[in-house]
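Kindly draft a polypeptide, keeping tokens residue-aligned:

***
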Amino acid sequence: MVLRHQVVARCAAARDYEEPDSLASLVSDLYLSAVDPASAAEALILGDCGSLEAVVRELVAQGGYQVVGPVTSRASLLGGAGAQRGIEAAVAAGLDRARGTPDPSPQAPGLGAATYALAHFSSRSGSASLAGADALNALYGNATPGFGLYTFVLLSAGSGTQGAAQQARSRELLRVIETYVPGEGTGAPGPEVHAFLVAVHPERADLPLGDQTGPELSDPMRRQLALELRGAGLGPLARRLETRPGPFLVSSSEPRLLPGGAGSARLVVDLSGIGNEYLYAVVDAFDRPVPPGPAVGLDAIRERLLMLPVAPDGAGAVRDDWVFRVGQPASPRVAR
């Protein structure tokens, strides 16, 4: 019952704000939250989140063959005998989309049958090292352990003029990370080493980083992080993650995006209004030796970012409302 009320509220808000692709976003969130497919189908159909056929199609497209049974069973129960033909057509359309997902590539050695990969960029590596997983929530929860700080790059889907500007900013950020962060070495982690992490399609490993990734790999986890922040009483920051175009940088001493416990320290950086000319300086603020202590490392990055002469909204005085420190208390002394 709680799930149904939450879904009803979410779908009503999406209609009020005319949110594009709200059904796809909600299905992603439900799967990431480990809601079983039958319960998800029931909540979406009864919550008026789309037609019965649209709900079935999206659940199957994102869930694949394994969800067909529970989704069709619940949809048939709710729709009755007259809905069966439409359900069958929706299942076929959903499976067509699921089959269109790129297959894991044999060109990414060591990843086995991994569907996704997390590229690690650090000053200790001559190129990105990859860690694979079959689900996005598993991917973002299992970065290579041993680094001092991790910064996840989260992209979000945009549209129109805003979308074009956002894509240009995201591609430039990724170009700077790919070009200037890797140094010389074996790629081995160390407590003094910072790593940028970007989710990629492993079969695209030979392409530029901007072509290896996309919002489809990070947008669901960005929304999941927003849910976690809202649950921790950080509604304004959650709303920023949900509504602003990004990209966003989320730093932690933990090898995972989502907090591992109450009070886990995070640094959230909103690059929505930062000009491309400042992105090298932003990346450089992260790509420094990590001082001892996770709070000290995060606070050092925050201080360096706030010293940059940028006006995030393109006009007026330099502002500090694009860098957010959450979780553990700030360290009394910040190492620069």
The first strand starts at residue 116 and ends at 122.
